[in-house]
## 1
Amino acid sequence: MTLAAFPAGVSLVASGAATPACSVSNDQLSLWLDTSDDWIRSRTGIGARRIAGPGESLTALAAAAGRQALERAGWDPASVDLVLLATSTPDDLFGSAPQVQALVGATGAVAFDLTAACSGFLFGLVTASQYLRCGAAQRVLLIGADQLSRWLDWQDRSTCVLFGDGAGALALEACPAIEDGLLGFRLASDGRRSDCLRLPQRDGRQELQPGISPQEGGFSPLQMNGQEVYKFAVREVPAVLKALLAETGTEAAAIDWLLLHQANQRILDAVAERLGLPAERVLSNLAAYGNTSAATIPLMLHEAVSDGRVRPGQLIASSGFGAGLSWGAALMRWRGPATA
Ligand code: UT7
């Protein structure tokens, strides 16, 4: 990777997605949990979620999503400079991005993981944009992928019904500043509230010798104070979006699509209401996938680009939020692949 000598804009060129084959409905969950389709739908909007099976590793899903974004962009994989994988559930704690880089054939790229839970894709987008703007990269493959199904307590109805597995990807390219597709962003973290949503290291030590007892690796299942996270989301997400709109001189009415982290339909509705946006402009696929953590935003974007809802030139206001606590917003303009 070498530095080019000009500042650049960022183009959102093409998307991709991959989800596991196995879809599990709310009714199926109620076979072993004291829950119901009515409770889950009315409280969250979730109807089903995908759960990764054999052969559907995080790496495989991320690579499938990435490959599709590269194909849609019409790029030679070898032309990619950076593969950035936003995930909290890598197959390898040393990082899964290099394996994804190899699988997609991005032989010239540097690859690394970025962990920011459900805000990961948004944090990744901003990180990728810095590489593109300073000229360190011309092309970036950004992937948001998570497989939280392996870190859930499947007997805990307050958490396991909410999450699913998936991957989404975005091909990003440097462009002239005048064509910039990332109009602004704001990111925030507050570690003082990290106990609201955690996937902590498990307790446990092995004593090798008296006084020598290294901790054993492994994590406890995801823990969440749902009400606190809910209150945090409906307070911070409208606030960060409003601040971003003010900063960029954008009227809410100019937003074509509100693309939020898909955690709960009630959060999407509350944020839209506070911004004065009608329900038709809110993208939601919670019913089919639930909360796929770092994958929700690119998975939703890919669906809306593929079915023609999101069109070239449209303005998208996006916000991610979750563990950390972390949150942020980005104002983007969709470009789409260059036409010959
Ligand atoms: O990506 C990370 C971001 N995460 C989020 O954004 C999550 C934000 N939080 C939420 O979406 C909501 O707080 C939840 C969907 C998690 C929970 O909804 P809630 O309206 O806050 O429910 P609650 O936790 O107050 O629970 C209400 C009742 C309780 O029973 P009691 O104590 O009133 O008898 C729960 O035990 O619902 C019960 N309950 C369930 N009942 C049936 C909790 N989970 C379930 C369930 N099925 N799955």
## 2
Amino acid sequence: MNVHESEKMAGILEARGFSVCDEITEADIIVLNTCCVRETAESRVYGHLGRIKSQKKSGAVLVVCGCMTQQPSVAQSLAKRCAFVDIILGTFNQSKLGEYIDTFMHTGERIIDVWEKEREETACGIARSSGVNAWVNIMYGCNNFCTYCIVPYVRGRERCRPIDDIISDVDGLLASGYKQITLLGQNVNSYSYGGKDFTGLLKMLETDRKYRLKFMTSHPKDFSLALAEHMATSKIMGKNLHLPVQSGSDRILQAMNRRYTRDDYFRKIDEVRRLVPDIGLSSDVMVGFPTETEADFDDTIDLVGRVRYNNLFTFIYSRRSGTPADKMPQLDYKTKQARIDKLIKYQFEISKSIAEECVGKTFEVLVAEKKSGKCFGKAENDAAVTFVGNNVNIGDFVKVKVTDAKNANLSGEVV
Ligand code: SAH
Ligand code: SF4
């Protein structure tokens, strides 16, 4: 989400004639886009700011934005603590960045502006982007209130964008040559607009043009069989699914307010695999949620082993003030660290053996990068593949046979 928003802001600045530079010491404008989903990211911001302060050239404009500064109290204390920050905004007014920069450059007056929610005219979802990839927001906010999560507080209630706006964004991106489009939302499976649900939206994006369509994030409670059926027959959909489970323990899932059980989850995974046999699966898993016992954690390990994800994003639970879990009995740091270490090691072995099973198989790879004849891209199941391709260009879809797997990295040759 933040990468996508950073791209969006880069687009705003480029439209004003600025371009990206490599060194902070050369920048005329520095934008620090923050995240508050975990506490570690938040505390790092002050360290980054200290470094930026000492490195930036005099007169450079320093902007801090994102979901950390969306919290008014955090924006205020950051403003006080870091007098050298010129502009502070939240998530809802990021699209105003260009206007804030213009105003600051004219007046030299510090701007601190955090909106409670976004205003109509700024609800734009398109992101210009890097290389072959583009992202399009289909909805904002979240209504789920998982007990650990700060997102519903800093991003507001769920709001879906009109279907026509999404379709015209996607058409525009395809016309500009983008080859992979990812639809974004905190819970895309609850998309609903004008009587159409998420699968309905996806069906309207089917076309004979060659591109790959992806989406994230799906919430297991809302992921439907109809969507898996559509993925199985679609000509454009990527064959991968990010379905964050968070925990393998029913007791913890309930305490998290996730509203599914591990059996519900297994059933959905089985259905998806039956309909889309070679689908690549990934997930978010959190360890150390308040009251998590060794037995709860064992259930998580067991679930991860049974699903055999291609890829896993692992998180140590982090306290977020204002959320219900913050008031529950907490685990000590050592226990949490030991659990995540074990989980990461376990997943590493799974990813490795899945990669080995890919040797000999052929995938359709979308080429995203090319350096001295060496191409890099993603397969339809989201696996990263490198190969040598002399007559291949960035943006091509190329059939590649995997010849080697090192850890989880695949390499192959054009067939
Ligand atoms: N809407 C998405 C996820 C958004 S946040 C979903 O429900 O799947 C991305 C991930 O950050 C979450 O899946 C969760 O694993 C992690 N996360 C969220 N809040 C967290 C917290 N307080 N501590 C640690 N990880 C957290
Ligand atoms: Fe947070 Fe849960 Fe909403 Fe995801 S679904 S953004 S984890 S509240």
